[in-house]
């Protein structure tokens, strides 16, 4: 089980849900199942509208991550994954801050998921 907390200006308050790790559900799927509206258009990793910021909670180091080629490309094209950051995450197996909800498979990790509510717009980090 993983605690997934969704936070966005479009939500009245932060919402924490329990997700079953390993059932291959994406974060977008978890959000939809809980009536949390993350903007999404293609739902296939190509448009970038489901941009989210993921923060790992708890004391464990984040699990290693393999971004799909689609996610790498879309994040890069949208300016959310620079070449140096891509090299670092691939070398050190650390996840990037920005992800695509439709490509992110929930794992056994507690996370905070922040999104702006606007398609492809990153959350205001000053909140
Ligand atoms: S909905 Fe298009 S990239 Fe996720």
Which terms would index this structure?
alpha+beta, 127 residues, 5 strands, Ubiquitin-like (UB roll)
Offer a concise description of the structure.
With 127 residues, the chain is of the alpha+beta class. It has helices at residues 27-33, 69-77, 83-92; strands spanning 2-7, 15-19, 51-56, 98-100, 111-114. It has a 5-stranded mixed sheet, with no helix packed on it.
Task: Characterise this structure.
- The chain is an alpha+beta fold.
- The chain has one domain (2-114): Beta-grasp domain (Ubiquitin-like (UB roll)), CATH 3.10.20.
- Helix content is 20%, strand content 19%.
- The protein contains three helices and five strands, in the order E-E-H-E-H-H-E-E.
- Strands 2-1-5-3-4 form a five-stranded mixed beta sheet, with no helix packed on it.
- The longest helix is centred in the C-terminal third of the chain and has 10 residues, at 83-92.
- The chain is globular.
């Amino acid at each position: 089980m993983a605690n997934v907390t969704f936070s966005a200006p479009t939500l009245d308050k932060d919402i924490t849900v329990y997700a079953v790790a390993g059932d291959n559900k994406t974060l977008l799927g978890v959000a939809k199942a809980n009536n949390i509206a993350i903007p999404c258009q293609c739902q296939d990793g190509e448009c970038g509208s489901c941009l989210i910021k993921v923060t790992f909670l708890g004391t464990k180091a984040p699990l290693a991550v393999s971004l799909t080629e689609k996610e790498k490309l879309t994040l890069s094209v949208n300016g959310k994954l620079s070449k140096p950051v891509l090299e670092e995450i691939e070398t050190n197996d650390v996840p990037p801050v920005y992800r695509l909800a439709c490509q992110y498979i929930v794992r056994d990790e507690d996370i905070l998921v922040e999104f702006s509510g606007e398609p492809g717009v990153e959350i205001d980090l000053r909140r």
